[in-house]
Amino acid sequence: QKEVEQDPGPLSVPEGAIVSLNCTYSNSAFQYFMWYRQYSRKGPELLMYTYSSGNKEDGRFTAQVDKSSKYISLFIRDSQPSDSATYLCAMKVTNAGNMLTFGGGTRLMVKP
Amino acid sequence: DAGITQSPRHKVTETGTPVTLRCHQTENHRYMYWYRQDPGHGLRLIHYSYGVKDTDKGEVSDGYSVSRSKTEDFLLTLESATSSQTSVYFCAISEPGLAGGRDTQYFGPGTRLTVL
Asked: A105 at the B interface (CB within 8 A)?
């Protein structure tokens, strides 16, 4: 079993929909959580990061962490065709080593 | 791309040949990383560096070596390429002074390597 699980999709939604992307993890030592967006044939681009449980909002994006359930989510409001990409979750044990553990990514398609 | 460039961007080579990929950064970031990305496996760390001449192994280091003789350059070498090393290779950096601190990594554009 992988340490971080992420549904590969594809997830297809109409423009304007609220999108929910999720990851589950098994290592309770993970304390730092990130979401990356990756367009086709490009490098991952950092979207959001958080050290704590609860919600963090940035524009149309909200990251949610539930450490008790080992579950993190990324919500996208008012989704746009330009949001079509693969979304990767990543996590780390803070101040311990340098390795990020990634989910496999969820491919999102937002249709006009 | 946090000032990261990778070269070459695309390469096709044959089994058994040596290959070197270059990651160059212009911001004097201390920490540099090499990842590979494969379908079904996501991104996996190959090697990383925490300073000039200071490197360490990651999760999938077999068949790869690295060198960092200057702050700005981190080289990944496949001594004798195999078809299983066909992948997309990403360089990343982290820096305490950037958003998210040392724990957050910023990625370059990638190198697509095909080993025939």
From this structure: yes
* pLDDT computed for residue B96 by the predictor: 75
Q: List chain A residues with CB under 8 Å of B56.
A: 98
- Residue of chain A minimizing CA distance to B5: A43
Pick from B72, B66, B59: nearest CA to B25: B72
Is the Cβ of A75 closer than 8 Å to some Cβ of chain B? no
Q: What is the pLDDT of residues A14-37, one digit of tens each?
A: 999 999 999 999 999 898 899 999
pLDDT in tens, B86-112: 999 999 998 777 777 767 889 999 999
How far apart, in Å, are the Cα atoms of B68 and each of A19, B56, B75?
A: 42, 11, 6
Question: How confident is the model over A45-63, as pLDDT tens digits?
Answer: 999 998 878 899 999 999 9
Question: Residue A45 in contact with residue A38, Cβ under 8 Å?
Answer: yes
Structure tokens at B84: 């299983």
